[in-house]
């Protein structure tokens, strides 16, 4: 049963809390399972592992929900699964043992939260102290960041938000759905992580310039470009995502030309003064809100995305007027999808040059500027010193001579 199939809102919230906790604590739960099940997860055991992980999350990390209910509901759940029903004894024994060791399991080292290869890689790239912040950010999750049409003190106060940088604000806590927040129905803001809001601000063109937003859905960056006064063409290949993009712009009362096409092959009737390419990537920078990416991304996945990005970069360059600006970004922590891609583009695409980003362009995020003039953000950086971190993002600005 999916979360959407759960009728009661409180039950949906509980299901989401259990699943999210199990995903955030996945590495620690792996260690716990290795102690509880000497022979590992039984083969062809249906929902056994999923139910066991959720139940351990409740027993160890959400004890206020009740230990008895965790054990009872787990056993009842697998009884209804013909592939797992014969394992009720094993489930009961494993959870009883987990309950007796709950205090020790609660204190497992946070280093277990990240895959070992990712921890080594990111320690080398960002430093061990940053990786410590990564684990803290993983457990804490992501606060809600918004981009405001008009960041007036009155609007910020009505939301109960804290200003970040430019027109981004943060809600550390909220007690209602996004749609019920002040100003949503009136189209006064849109949801956008503070890191994701950086690339569109770096286009640096005059109002009225024609800008192409490649891979545009769900439309946060498109909205920023429209707000900046550009004439915007927003492109995405997925019809469902295009419909979502259009709906979001409609709510904001923003207008843009919408194109459904492949970003790698799109041939425009006229070249653009600016192109923003938020390329498909491994999305490892989004682990605060999507912890599963930590365990689902392999070196092969990153390499495959890198090849796709090069095709998109090549076509973005083809769509750009001489003298035009190309902003390239990915929500990835992997240099292969960021710095290495820019090096490849500068070496391969004749006439493309780097347009370094200055500290004064992203005041409040000075720690994210690299010596080369790139922006490299990660969950260990607090925007404008406001606690909560931000997504991992790489941004480079290029220009066609």
TrEMBL record:
Presence of keyword Oxidoreductase: no
Binding-site residues for S-adenosyl-L-methionine, renumbered to this chain: 215-221, 236, 262, 278
Keyword 4Fe-4S: no
SAM-dependent MTase RsmB/NOP-type domain mapped to chain residues: 123-401
InterPro entries cross-referenced by the UniProt entry: MeTrfase_RsmB-F_NOP2_cat (IPR049560), MeTrfase_RsmB-F_NOP2_dom (IPR001678), NusB-like_sf (IPR035926), NusB_RsmB_TIM44 (IPR006027), RCMT (IPR023267), SAM-dependent_MTases_sf (IPR029063)
Signal peptide: none
Keywords, sorted A to Z: Methyltransferase, RNA-binding, S-adenosyl-L-methionine, Transferase
CDD domains assigned: AdoMet_MTases (cd02440)
Example GO biological process: RNA methylation
Pfam family, any one: NusB
Molecular function as annotated in GO: RNA binding; RNA methyltransferase activity
Source species, domain of life: Bacteria
Active site: 331
Family of this protein: Belongs to the class I-like SAM-binding methyltransferase superfamily. RsmB/NOP family.
PANTHER family assigned: NOL1_NOP2_SUN FAMILY PROTEIN _ ANTITERMINATION NUSB DOMAIN-CONTAINING PROTEIN, NOP2 YEAST -RELATED NOL1/NOP2/FMU SUN DOMAIN-CONTAINING
Name this polypeptide is given: SAM-dependent MTase RsmB/NOP-type domain-containing protein
